[in-house]
Inverse folding.
């Protein structure tokens, strides 16, 4: 029957195209990561794939890379401070605007989210001019403030999303049973939205640790951060330490991701 | 219900004050400075005038850089959509365990450092890179291909780097679609392709719009990927702004370029948003 054959072909070609493209995309997503990890075990002087031999020498070379370690420290310090501030400011902001349908809440929501859409480089440059206009010297503190602006949206988004799932009746019952607002927040609201805040904090941390557009303008030689240092290594003399430090970062990211998935159900909050 | 939600919000509005203060002081104020600096007529910043905007918008070379950048974002977005949609569709459909695994594959790159991801592509695309080695070994090419420092290279890498931004909103919308609708369409004899085109894709339009906007904004402004993969020969707006701001020390020109670039990206994004809205209205009409 030709009709039957047409339907068969229809179903069969559809499956083939969707399945095929999915396989291609999964490969496309994973391939670079695998390549970096394999390259990091290169034994030779220069980057080549496949490597001529395998060794751990470029991992050993990381131990002596003082400048890189200082940059990593700076990054960590800024990321921790920016995340802490983003969580405090973002959670408070989410409580204020997350459950309100007033016009000002909508306006503030768009304002607070806009750093996600604006070119980060433009904001970084604007911040540099602003800081020099105020006559403030660049420091880890100015860098942190710049990072807060671009990290807050992540905390805000996940927290507002979990607030939306919080049944207001719970808050009313708590209040009508005589609990103070602070007590209700600590014992009812916080346990319910804690995972959302946690997921947002994790993404904010990663975003700060990896930020380039803002750091490009707000960090100098003293406050150099890891992504900038890494960018310069890759841009000037592509050495294999770039691969070994990348592999270290990938493994750390994987570990943090698994922890975040366990504690905060990360993957549900990313959407 | 509304009253209750309102009661909750009335007492809490002041909680937004600290964040609003931070944004006023460290986001809106710098952007204001950016706008003012862009209005200076010369690098020494003495007199006001629209000269810098004439330089950005009147010069063919600069205009070309702007349109190249906006087109680059569009190309990366299209590639992301073509490759990302099937993955999202499959992810929304499979058993929960496999779905968790696929989501993990999607999320891993977004959390891996952008520099690291871009560096991986240098190893893959370089003259001595994985792809060239493979092409030479298989006899597909006589000599190493120029993949790095080409626009095709930049588009491919941008698509990979920004893929999660496309797939995640798509999975969310696709999961919300009632599977009975597609089943009904199939039972009525529409076939897989037609069901996909006429039922699944229109219903997932909000996810497509959200994903495209995120990818576009990220791809057009991706300084690191553009400069490392594109090299110095391919000039896009972020590099142009950076060069004018730091190398040439021409702050007014860099500021005007940044303002024009921001406005163009926002314009494209809102046009797309609008397009999605009218299409949706027509679908449901």
């Amino acid at each position: 029957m030709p009709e039957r054959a047409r339907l068969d072909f229809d179903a069969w070609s559809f499956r083939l195209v969707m399945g095929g493209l999915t396989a291609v995309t999964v490969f496309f997503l994973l391939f670079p990561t695998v390549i970096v990890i394999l390259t990091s075990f290169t034994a030779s002087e220069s980057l080549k794939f496949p490597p001529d031999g395998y060794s751990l020498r470029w991992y050993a070379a990381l131990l002596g890379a003082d400048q890189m370690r200082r940059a990593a420290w700076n990054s960590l310090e800024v990321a921790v401070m920016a995340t802490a501030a983003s969580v405090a400011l973002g959670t408070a902001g989410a409580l204020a605007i997350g459950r309100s349908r007033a016009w000002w809440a909508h306006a503030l929501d768009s304002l607070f989210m806009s750093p996600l859409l604006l070119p980060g480089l433009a904001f970084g440059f604007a911040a540099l001019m602003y800081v020099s206009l105020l006559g403030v010297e660049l420091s880890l503190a100015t860098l942190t403030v710049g990072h807060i602006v671009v990290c807050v949206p992540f905390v805000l988004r996940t927290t507002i999303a979990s607030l939306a799932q919080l049944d207001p009746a719970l808050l009313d019952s708590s209040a009508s049973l005589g609990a103070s607002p602070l007590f209700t927040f600590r014992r009812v609201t916080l346990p319910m939205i804690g995972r959302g805040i946690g997921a947002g904090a994790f993404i904010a941390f990663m975003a700060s640790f990896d930020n380039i557009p803002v750091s490009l303008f707000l960090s100098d030689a003293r406050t150099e951060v890891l992504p900038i240092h890494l960018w310069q290594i890759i841009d000037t003399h592509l050495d294999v330490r770039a691969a070994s430090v990348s592999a270290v970062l990938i493994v750390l990211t994987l570990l943090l991701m698994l922890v975040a998935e366990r504690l905060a159900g990360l993957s549900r909050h990313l959407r | 219900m509304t009253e209750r939600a309102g009661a909750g919000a009335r007492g809490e509005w002041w909680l937004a004050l600290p964040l609003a203060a931070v944004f006023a002081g460290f986001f809106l104020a710098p952007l204001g400075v950016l706008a003012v600096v862009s209005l200076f007529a010369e690098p020494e910043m003495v007199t006001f005038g629209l000269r810098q905007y004439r330089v950005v918008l009147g010069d063919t070379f600069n205009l070309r850089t702007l349109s190249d950048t906006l087109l680059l974002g569009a190309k990366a977005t299209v590639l992301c959509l073509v490759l990302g949609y099937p993955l999202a569709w499959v992810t929304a459909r499979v058993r929960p365990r496999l779905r968790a695994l696929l989501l993990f594959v999607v999320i891993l790159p977004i959390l891996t450092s952008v520099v690291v991801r871009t560096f991986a592509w240098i190893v893959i695309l370089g003259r001595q890179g994985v792809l060239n080695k493979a092409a030479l070994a298989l006899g597909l090419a006589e000599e190493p291909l120029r993949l790095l420092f080409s626009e095709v290279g930049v588009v491919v890498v941008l698509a990979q780097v920004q893929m999660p931004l496309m797939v995640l909103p798509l999975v969310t919308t696709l999961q919300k679609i009632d599977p009975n609708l597609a089943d009904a369409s199939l039972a009525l004899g529409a076939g897989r392709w037609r069901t996909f085109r006429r039922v699944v894709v229109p219903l997932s339009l909000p996810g497509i719009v959200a994903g495209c906007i995120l990818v576009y904004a990220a791809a057009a402004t991706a300084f690191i990927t553009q400069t490392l993969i594109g090299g110095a020969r391919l000039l896009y707006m972020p590099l142009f702004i950076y060069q004018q701001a730091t190398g040439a020390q021409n702050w007014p020109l860099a500021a005007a370029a940044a303002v024009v670039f921001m406005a163009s990206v926002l314009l494209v994004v809102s046009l797309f948003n609008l397009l999605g809205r009218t299409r949706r209205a027509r679908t449901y009409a």
Remarks:
- The domain at 51-284 of chain B is CATH 1.10.3720.10 (MetI-like fold).
- Chain B touches chain A through 98 residues (CB under 8 Å).
- Chain B has one domain: 51-284.
- Confidence is low (pLDDT under 50) at residues 1-10 of chain B.
